[in-house]
Amino acid sequence: MVDLRKLGHLSYASEADIANYVNMVLRDTIHAMGRSDDIMLYAAMGFCNQRPDIWVICCNGLPVGFIEIKKPSGAIMDEPLLAGQVFDYLMLLKSFYGIEFQFGIVSTYELWQFFWLHKTDPAAQMNTVSKPQSVSNPGQSPLVICLPGIPCFDKKNKTSIQVIGQSSHAQKSYQKREVFASDVFSSTNKNLPRAIASILSKMAASPRQKVNLADSTRSYIKMTENSWNWVTLPTNLQVIKFGNLPRNDTKNFICLSYLGSGAEGLV
Length: 267
Prior knowledge:
Elements: H1 15-33, E1 39-43, E2 54-58, E3 63-69, H2 80-97, E4 103-107, E5 111-116, H3 121-124, H4 142-145, E6 159-162, E7 180-181, E8 185-186, H5 192-205, E9 220-223, E10 228-231, E11 239-242, E12 253-255, E13 261-262, E14 265-266
Helix pairs in contact: 1-5
């Protein structure tokens, strides 16, 4: 890996400039891995104001990991707000995309660190990762089918869905926002290219679980006028009916699925 600082080329005015440097490193690593056809990088995919600088995308068009870019500063990797931001990105991968092993990368180009949720720790400790089976003509990918569909409805035939896996526990919020992290690697560390390749391979190799639209074991984003947080579905919710608009005084909303970008923004 070329150290741009020694060449006098690491000049930047914003995170976008740093992202260009990081992007070059990632693309070189992916090319060296021989994975240019099935590991692709896209920017500015986001949800509920959670928008990492670069999502790692596989050939099925769905995110399997993320890279967050920060401008270099002395203590950026130790910032509690950064850890919270990473936690939310990882939860998006788990709950809305069904990624079983959630990984993320944070980089200032000068410094690199890798993050994952606690149930991903066994995968993080693995020394080898098998390459996912390639599909020459995937058509509609099975992984895409696993994402939840939104029921169609009209005024005459209103649709309802049953909540899966009813729980006896009350609705809970995630109070313990905890992430695991690797050591911090400098851009001159000879082990950094191998570490990046390992994380990218694990992102691409992660199984994707079926995501049910209404599931008591799943995490959801609960939104109010001023804030949002991760919760489970209310225990008294057994059926979700589509077609009726909420009351004018409704103050709490639960996001069931991410539909993508619409004319007025994210849906």
